[in-house]
Design a protein that fits this description.
about 240 residues, mainly alpha, Glycerol uptake facilitator protein, 8 helices, globular
Length: about 240
């Protein structure tokens, strides 16, 4: 099959949009459950709120990880299944994408992220987000968490590929996303998600905060490329990217 650039960009757009539907949608499910429990007043019920929050944080992480793994399996043969500008940047550095292809991928992914966030909000509320980028900036230490989350995510993809085990990328990627989203206080690991969540309503970061997040994520992607290239100097895959 001749995977033209147009076909690959459509695949990246769709996959990233669905990823944002999972990210934003699962977050709204958790919020709704906590609000439902918050109407109760006994000590036991307040404890159940904390339990529900912990359980549903893991549930949201599982939703996102499974969705991403499925999208890599379904669309990976078309575009590589990046759905993440940080992953695409690393692919570019490994010479798997040209500069023009990387730019095109990033644009398709970011647009997909924004559209996916709008779809998630509209599906849940019946209306567009009431506000954009209202949450504000993050605490500085959370950016360290974001760096680690992105570094491991990109490494999980490209190290698996360069080890000649590309068939395990969905498992490695989906598994790390579950850990990342469930355990890290701040772990988007994806510039498209960072921009998409700006358009997710009151819980979204400001545009400036998203830009800082993206800068951290791209630096992490470059660091991941450097370490992965050092650990796997030879590409053992037949068709790397």
């Amino acid at each position: 099959m001749d995977n033209t650039l147009a076909r690959r960009l459509v695949a990246e757009f769709i996959g990233t949009a669905l990823l944002l539907v999972a990210v934003v949608g699962s977050g709204r499910i958790v919020t709704a459950i906590i609000r439902l429990n918050s109407t109760k007043t006994s000590t036991t019920d307040f404890k159940s709120i904390g339990l529900a929050q912990s359980v549903d944080r893991f549930g949201g992480a599982l939703i996102v990880g499974l969705l991403l793994a499925v999208m890599v399996v379904v669309l990976g043969a078309v575009s590589g299944g990046h759905f993440n500008p940080a992953v695409s940047l690393s692919a570019f550095l490994f010479k798997g994408l040209s500069a023009a292809e990387f730019f095109s991928y990033a644009v398709a992914q970011i647009l997909g992220g924004i559209v996916g966030a709008f779809i998630a909000i509209y599906a849940a509320t019946g209306s567009a987000p009431s506000s954009i980028g209202a949450k504000g900036t993050l605490d500085p230490w959370l950016y360290v968490s974001e760096f680690v989350a992105t570094f491991v995510l990109v490494t999980a993809v490209h190290a698996t590929i360069r080890a000649g085990k590309a068939n395990f990328v969905p498992l490695a990627l989906g598994g790390w996303v579950v850990v990342m989203a469930g355990a890290f206080p701040q772990g988007l690991g994806n510039p498209a998600v960072s921009f998409g969540t700006v358009f997710s309503g009151k819980a979204g970061p400001t545009f400036v905060a998203a830009l800082v997040l993206v800068a951290v994520q791209l630096v992490a992607a470059v660091a991941s490329w450097s370490v992965t290239k050092f650990l796997y100097p030879q590409d053992a895959s037949a068709r790397a990217y």
